Write a sequence for this structure.
């Protein structure tokens, strides 16, 4: 195998190590949030909330409500509690007909970190 082949295999190996580290970090964050979210929201919908924010960490409130199937009043309360706790942040304030956009920063930071 030539130098180019070796370089390619090293690059593939480095990328797989980086991806593996990111997956492990996301799984660890999921486990942590599986304990933390119920403490924050004290709701029967904790797992639905957890899965929804990991599935789509940037969302509008209406999208969150439709994806989780949580009653609107409960979902609004849950989002407010998570915003108040700092778990979620406002990415874009509502303006006119444009709804606010909310995000789960910890997941976004975890998946964007360079591990090498």
């Amino acid at each position: 195998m030539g130098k180019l082949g070796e370089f390619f295999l090293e690059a593939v190996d480095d990328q797989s190590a980086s991806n593996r580290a990111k997956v492990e970090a996301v799984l660890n964050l999921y486990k942590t949030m599986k304990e933390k979210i119920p403490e924050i929201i004290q709701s029967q919908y904790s797992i639905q909330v957890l899965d929804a924010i990991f599935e789509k960490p940037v969302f509008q409130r209406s999208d969150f409500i439709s994806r989780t199937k949580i009653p609107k009043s409960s979902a609004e309360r849950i989002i407010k509690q998570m915003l108040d706790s700092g778990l979620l942040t406002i990415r874009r304030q509502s303006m006119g007909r444009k709804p606010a956009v909310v995000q789960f920063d910890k997941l976004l930071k975890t998946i964007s970190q360079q591990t090498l």
Remarks:
- The helical segments are 3-41, 46-55, 61-68, 72-85, 105-112.
- The longest helix spans residues 3-41.
- The chain has one domain: 3-112.
